[in-house]
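The following block was generated as part of the benchmark described in Methods. Ligand: NDP.
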Amino acid sequence: MRDVVIIGSGCAGLTASVYAARANLKPLVIDGVEIGGQLSLTTLVENFPGFPEGVQGPELIQRMRDQAARFGAEYRAGNVTAADLSKRPFTVTVDGESLETRTLIIASGASARWLGLESEKALIGKGVSSCATCDGFFFRGKKVLVVGGGDTAMEEAIFLTRFASAVEVVHRRDQFRASKIMLDRARHTEKVHFTLDTVVADVLDPSRGEVVGVKLRNVKSGALTDRDVSAVFVAIGHTPNTAVFRGQLEMDAEGYLKTQQGTRTNIPGVFAAGDVQDRVFRQAVTAAGSGCMAAIEAERFLESSGQ
Ligand code: NDP
């Protein structure tokens, strides 16, 4: 029986584990599929306080992990496949094994969204990617496409110019969701150009087992055009990882967990931190902040329930 189980090993989960470990609660962190969360897929993080020169995302994550381990946090590889929150202690199933815990901190984050095309699905890992940092390297000297009009799309496009000969950003509207600073940076980056009011209608060519181009559709005129590109980076936002809690925890229409007073879910003793409950800020430092809140809440909950 655990006092605190933390689901997720990103910035929120690891910060919660630092606080819970220092409170002597010996938290168990379930790593999840994407170990280290989204920060582990980033390069330079320039806006985390305390790092005036910036810090590499994976390094920041490793430092948090080491920090929590120093105070007694434990880590377990694996993914939560089921949870029973109907009674205390709560039960979570990690790859077939059941664990009992008095409190639960859900910091399972959000995963990349896909366009939903059959051809896209067939070519994931074969030229279709949601992570420029992970896969950009493979397209040295090639033309690549980025889909999306948010900050992630801008960041990925700029990053990809390190390798690609040309980067085309395809966005479904003519207005951007990206912040002005990121958009300006992308606009002023050589090799990046934009195609607006346009969607990807098809990725070519699943029968060849690699990306050789895309079919684009202008949403205003309906006109179809082909592009020869070697990769498609899909940067159209994220979906919260909350499927196993459906029907037990309150969530909004998109599946983000609803919280009150910071990190309290509708079930006492279950807390949510980071991107899984934050669709607005989604920053490393806000995720860390809510991880801290969740751990303090869990500690107080244990104290007040005399456990
Ligand atoms: P956003 O939700 O901000 O943007 C998603 C983009 O994808 C939108 O332009 C949206 O279009 C488009 N889109 C969504 N679904 C589809 C679809 N099915 N087909 C085509 N286009 C689609 O997500 P981001 O990942 O860009 O950003 C998430 C958060 O992270 C934001 O708060 C952002 O500011 C932050 N961030 C900050 C960074 C930084 O400051 N360095 C870097 C990266 C992210 P539409 O606009 O029409 O809805």
